[in-house]
Design goal:
This is DUF927 domain-containing protein. With 941 residues, this protein is an alpha+beta fold. Helix content is 32%, strand content 22%. It has four domains: 26-280, no CATH class; 415-517, no CATH class; 562-822, 3-Layer(aba) Sandwich (Rossmann fold), CATH 3.40.50.300; 828-937. Strand 32 (525-526) and strand 33 (532-533) form a beta hairpin.
Length: 941
């Protein structure tokens, strides 16, 4: 059963993920260039008789249109008809099928109605049939024929033996002179594989590269700057959805010809290959990494020698251009090649061949953000292979797609700081000033300093800070050298970063002057007041840092309508459509998980999410993973439940120290709950001792807790802290079910769009005036109640209004997620025991008071009372009066079915109890126990 993705208002980053027009139809994009007027390579005969290749041109302007091919033969026919001004990409553009859209540079998109740029903002792989291209440009052991190349691929990945493939020669292969002298053989290849789900192409490409390495088909080349360039039988840098594939024939110079090489088809031309069959396991990864490490070690000497030659050759020109000493120019180039750090004096080649220094780029972020450049170490005529991101929320960087992809950090020149005896305070102040100016470190919680890496906040250690200081500062000391005439001459000497200064900075609690950090988000979110945070960078008011690798993150609509909210819900619910959630309450809890995932960083506290099922394999963990991916942008770490409260506290604290935003407490078997977990769920901060030291630090707690389990039960204190949704496949073997799509992959591929959809729902509720739908405010989770619970209840009324109509198709029925807490209390073993005891006690004594001892004596003749007390304090066939008294003490005042224990007081040295019943208490029973409003006051749907 194929399931189409629901439509909704979508961000630029994701609205270009179309569904297939028909089953099996391969979708791709055809470009036609107008500036320049050719895209393909130009091949001419060099004076020495060899083949000279002029690179394919950069496409600045032109048009893009969707193309569709039904099978490999149709695909081959389309590619054979392309002219030199045309190329393809295997991602999809925003245009409708058969409609051409203008292509302009990114900076002109806003001023050109209907135009798009050839960037990730406007191109994506379809979630459905598409084409995976494999590009082979040579091997170290000789030229490979098409058959040998394909056979080596199959040896590394046997699943490819059954994959349909289209073979075509590369643009510059098969060229000869007019008299028949071969200049390039048919040993450069393209293989086109029709796939079932093209959104998996980047992931499958990475897996295939690992398999090739593990099979011995990987190696390193030495780059012109001494960098080790990773290579395999296929080019690992071709799987960007917007990347051009120059399929058209080349332009040939005089006396050259390229005899036609007919395309070849392997396998069923109408079949689709499932990319999930390409394995990606830990053992293969380890084997590949070990081989890569050995290859790097073997090549290290050659890389170092080539690096020295490159630095020596280029340093004089850089020194002259920038007006700096040659030694400093050498240092700039050395850092670029060895450390992938581009200092302020490093010169990049921008579009149209304009040189610009890194310092100039950093000084004008509005001008240069998202600009394109040539590869920094291997520049050529292609000035579009590298992109600068100056607004990621952290350190600016440049990413180049050349040579499989490399990331370079952009830094200003290092500060120079003197160290020496008696200078510790001055050195500390100087380093602190540098760190404050750079803005890369944050005060995090109480006492901790954090840096941001991979979108996560990580507390720093003294050793880490010492290393960081050495990278951003140049430390030196003044030494005295005796001259030949016997006089002392002062001389500067390099010094290591002082560990003592790092420790002094970390010890300056509240005096460091760093920005306050509460959490890091990798997608847009809302602040606690409901305002939108969708611009990367640190937000001083909320303490949130929006870290974005996306050059143009999506924007959140400011004033969406009810219809926008319903469309957003339909889209947001699409990955959850096949999960058998049992009712409207379960749907409400699942939607709480989705909205809380998008908002958790702004919420001081939020209830956890539980997923409960009668049998294993029902999809609980998969649903939990979907919510975790929505929150983090990556797979959440899965933790097994701890056996003790102390171990629970340690694991939860470790999650916060690692910068995780999700705690996935999987496969819960015992009743869920402990003192540490309850505190974690209701506290905006969490403290513990740092492992291996006596230091205790307090960290912000903005992690979403998710707990799947079979027949999940919770202790009484946890019932209102974790809201549970039940899943029931109503199958004896639910693990054998076949999903027509991968929900987790769906969320991963289009995560930013799903986040924006979740925020659209909340913003629509705010635009509607924040109507109070469920009365009261959930204790301990007040802000969550405002931004999650109330919008769900508000949305539920609008869903109910269109139920049964075409407009309501694809929308889940919803109910107040807090109703799940009342159910949890009903199933709580402690609640069951309390209900039995108060009923039996009231039946025996009515409202009259008595002692625990008196109740035990009455149980000799009252079987119901005896059974109720035995479940609580039975030991060796007797009732332990002390245990029973303590239990009643703990339960006093808690209402069950309108009844509760009331402490009367001491008489004659004995504590007296009574069970009181009140009609006024009855409708409040479950709600009062949870700190909720009475049932009569909660909106129903």
């Amino acid at each position: 059963m194929a399931t189409k993705k629901a439509s909704a208002p979508r961000s630029d980053a994701a609205k270009n993920t179309p569904s297939a027009p028909s089953a099996g139809a391969l979708q791709f994009t055809v470009f036609t260039a107008t500036a320049p007027d050719r895209l393909t390579k130009v091949l001419t005969l060099a004076p020495d008789g060899t083949l000279h290749k002029e690179s394919a041109a950069n496409m600045m302007r032109g048009t893009a249109s969707r193309a569709v091919a039904h099978g490999l033969q149709e695909l081959a026919d389309v590619l054979e008809t392309l002219d030199p001004a045309q190329a393809t990409s295997w991602g999809m553009c925003d245009a409708a099928a058969g409609v051409s859209v203008p292509i302009v540079p990114e900076r002109e998109v806003a001023e050109t109605p209907g135009a798009i740029s050839r960037t990730r903002r406007h191109f994506a792989y379809p979630v459905g049939p598409g084409v995976m291209m494999l590009d082979h440009d040579g091997a170290p052991d000789g030229e490979l024929s098409a058959d040998v190349f394909r056979q080596r691929l199959i040896e590394a990945c046997p699943a490819l033996a059954d994959a349909p493939m289209l073979w075509r020669p590369s643009c510059s292969a098969g060229v000869c002179t007019a008299d028949g002298r071969e200049l390039s053989a048919l040993t450069r290849h393209r293989l086109y594989i029709p796939v079932r789900d093209a959104s998996r192409i980047p992931e499958a490409g990475r897996a295939l590269v690992q398999l090739l390495w593990a099979a011995g088909h990987g190696w390193f080349d030495v780059g012109r700057a001494g960098q080790a360039l990773e290579r395999t039988l296929i080019d690992a840098s071709v799987w960007q959805p917007e990347r051009l594939d120059f399929c058209a024939p080349p332009l040939l110079g005089k006396s050259l010809q390229r005899p036609h090489a007919a395309p070849r088809i392997f396998g069923d031309p109408l079949a689709l290959f499932d990319l999930a069959l390409i394995p990606h396991d830990a053992d293969t990864h380890k084997q590949a990494q070990a081989l890569k490490k050995a290859a790097r070690v073997q090549l290290a000497g050659q890389c170092a020698a080539q690096r020295e030659r490159w630095v020596a050759t280029n340093a004089p020109a850089l020194a002259k251009r920038r007006g700096i000493p040659v030694d400093k120019a050498r240092d700039v180039l050395q850092r670029a090649s060895a450390q992938r750090v581009l200092m302020g004096d490093f010169v990049l080649m921008a579009e149209q061949g304009k040189p610009v220094s890194v310092g100039e780029i950093l000084d004008r972020p509005e001008r240069w953000h998202n600009a394109q450049f040539a590869d920094p170490l291997d520049p050529d005529s292609d000035t579009r292979v590298a992109v600068v991101n100056l607004k990621s929320g952290q350190r600016p960087y440049l990413f180049t797609h050349r040579h499989g992809g490399m990331r370079f950090e952009l830094l200003r020149q290092s500060a120079r700081i003197q160290v020496g005896r008696g200078m510790r305070v001055a050195t500390t102040d100087a380093v602190l000033a540098v760190l404050q100016e750079r803005g890369e470190l944050f005060d995090y919680g109480e006492g901790a300093v954090a840096y941001v890496s991979d979108g996560k906040a990580r507390p720093v250690t003294p050793d880490w800070l010492t290393d960081h200081m050495g990278r951003v500062c140049e430390f030196y000391s003044m030494r005295h050298r005796r001259k030949a005439d016997g006089e002392d001459a002062p001389e500067e000497g390099p010094e290591d970063a002082p560990l003592s200064v790092a420790r002094a900075i970390l010890a300056k609690h509240g005096e460091r002057g760093f920005k306050k950090l509460v959490a890091v988000v990798t997608a847009p979110t809302l602040r606690i007041d409901g305002s939108i945070l969708d611009r990367p960078g640190h937000d001083e008011n909320s303490g949130l840092l929006f870290y974005s690798e996306h050059p143009n993150p999506p924007r959140v609509p400011v004033k969406p309508t009810v219809q926008d909210a319903l469309a957003a819900l339909r889209f947001l619910w699409a990955p959850l459509a096949l999960f058998p959630l049992v009712d409207a309450v379960a749907n409400g809890v699942a939607l709480h998980g989705l909205l809380s995932a998008a908002l958790r960083a702004s919420l001081p506290t939020a209830p956890g999410v539980g997923f409960d099922a009668p049998a294993a394999g029902s999809g609980k963990t998969l649903l939990a993973r979907c919510i975790g991916i929505l929150a983090m942008g990556s797979e959440p770490s899965i933790l097994p439940p701890a056996d003790t409260d102390e171990e629970t506290r340690k694991r939860l604290f470790a999650v916060l120290r690692e910068g995780q935003r999700v705690v996935l407490w999987d496969n819960v078997r015992e009743p869920l709950g402990s003192a540490s977990l309850d505190a974690f769920l209701t506290a905006p901060t969490f403290a513990d001792r740092v492992l291996g030291s006596s230091e205790t630090i307090t960290l912000p707690n903005r992690a979403l807790f998710i707990a799947p389990g079979n027949n999940l039960r919770m202790t009484s204190d946890t019932c209102r802290r974790v809201l549970t949704a039940r899943i029931d496949a109503q199958s004896e073997t639910p693990y054998t079910r076949d999903f027509s799509f991968d929900p987790a992959q769906m969320v991963q591929t289009d995560r930013l769009a799903y986040v924006v959809a979740a925020l659209t729902i909340v913003r629509a509720y705010i635009t509607a005036g924040r109507p109070k739908m469920a009365k009261g405010r959930t204790a301990s989770f007040e802000h969550w109640d405002d931004l999650v619970r109330q919008p769900i209840c508000w949305l539920a009324t609008h869903v109910a209004a269109i139920a049964g109509t075409p407009e309501g198709e694809g929308l889940p029925t919803l109910a107040d997620p807090m109703e799940a807490a009342a159910r949890a209390f009903e199933q709580d073993p402690e609640t069951t025991k309390l209900r039995a005891l108060v009923e039996a006690w009231f039946a025996a004594f009515g409202p009259d008071q008595t002692t625990v001892g008196g109740a035990i004596r009455r149980s000799d003749t009252d079987a119901l009372l005896a059974m109720a007390m035995d479940d609580i304090a039975g030991q060796a066939g007797k009732i332990n009066s002390r245990m029973l008294g303590r239990w009643i003490e703990r339960m006093q005042g808690r209402i069950v079915d309108g009844k509760r224990f009331v402490r009367i007081g001491h008489r004659a040295g004995l504590l007296h109890w009574a069970v009181h019943q009140s009609a006024a208490l009855r409708p409040m029973a479950a709600a009062d126990a949870m700190g909720m409003p009475a049932a009569d006051d909660v909106a129903t749907f």
